[in-house]
């Protein structure tokens, strides 16, 4: 494995040591909106992480993010610096707070992209917006954001990487 993006890992920070047990050759960066030691009732939520093989450590540089819903690294490649971001956007519960939370996360993401520490962007994760049918309340906000930064969905869907069903399409990979 060279790299892996994982969202909704459902781990609180006290459980991140489980990621270390994958392999001594794997390095990771992880975040979770769950509090350390938080007792979970019902279905847990969130969590994002990036994994990469240790042999690439010299070219991968973690970037501190404000949000606990995204992790980011700069990767130095022969094509320039690639900013890789994994995110898990808020779910729409149909209330005003959900929309406010979504817009706030887009603001955190915008702050990260405005740092201009990259030549290319790879943005991947659970956008919680149906960009194919534009039916979710968050679709317009995310589509506008992607357009503003000239991010386009990749051909990953054909490779079976992007989850898509007749009901929803929320997990995406976009690149500049």
Give the DSSP E fraction (strand runs of 2 or more residues): 25-35%
First and last CA, distance? 24 Å
Sheet with most strands: 6 strands, mixed
Topology, number of strands: 9
Strand order in the largest sheet: 4-5-6-7-9-8
Q: Report helical residue fraction.
A: 10-25%
Q: Which structural class best describes the helix and strand composition?
A: alpha+beta
Radius of gyration: 16 Å
Low-confidence residue ranges: 156-170
| Overall 3D form | globular
Q: Order of SSEs, N→C?
A: EHEEEEEHEHEE
How large is the count of helical segments?
A: 3
Quote the average pLDDT: 77
Supply database-style keywords:
176 residues, alpha+beta, 6-stranded mixed β-sheet, 9 strands, 18% helix, globular
Task: Write up what this structure looks like.
The protein is an alpha+beta fold. 18% of the residues lie in helices and 30% in strands. It has three helices and nine strands. The protein is globular, with a radius of gyration of 16 Å. The model is unreliable at 156-170 (pLDDT under 50).
Short overview:
The chain has 176 residues and is of the alpha+beta class.
Question: In terms of topology, how is this protein built?
Answer:
Layout: E1 3-7, H1 17-20, E2 26-31, E3 48-53, E4 60-63, E5 70-77, E6 80-88, H2 96-113, E7 120-126, H3 139-148, E8 152-153, E9 171-175
Parallel strand pairs: 6-7
Antiparallel strand pairs: 1-3, 2-3, 4-5, 5-6, 7-9, 8-9
């Amino acid at each position: 494995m060279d790299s892996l993006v994982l969202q909704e890992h459902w781990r609180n920070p006290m459980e991140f040591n489980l990621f270390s047990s994958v392999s001594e050759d794997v390095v990771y960066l992880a975040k979770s909106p769950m509090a350390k030691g938080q007792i979970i009732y019902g279905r847990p939520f969130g969590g994002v992480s990036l994994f990469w093989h240790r042999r690439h450590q010299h070219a991968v540089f973690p970037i501190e993010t404000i949000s606990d819903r995204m992790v980011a690294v700069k990767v130095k490649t022969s094509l320039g610096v690639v900013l890789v971001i994994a995110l898990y956007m808020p779910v729409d519960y149909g209330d005003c707070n959900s929309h406010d939370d979504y817009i706030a996360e887009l603001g955190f993401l915008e702050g990260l992209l405005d740092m201009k520490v990259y030549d290319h962007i790879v943005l991947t994760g659970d956008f919680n917006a149906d960009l194919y049918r534009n039916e979710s309340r968050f679709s317009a906000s995310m589509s506008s954001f992607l357009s503003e930064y000239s991010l386009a969905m990749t051909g990953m869907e054909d490779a079976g990487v992007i989850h898509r069903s007749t009901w929803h399409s929320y997990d995406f990979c976009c690149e500049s």
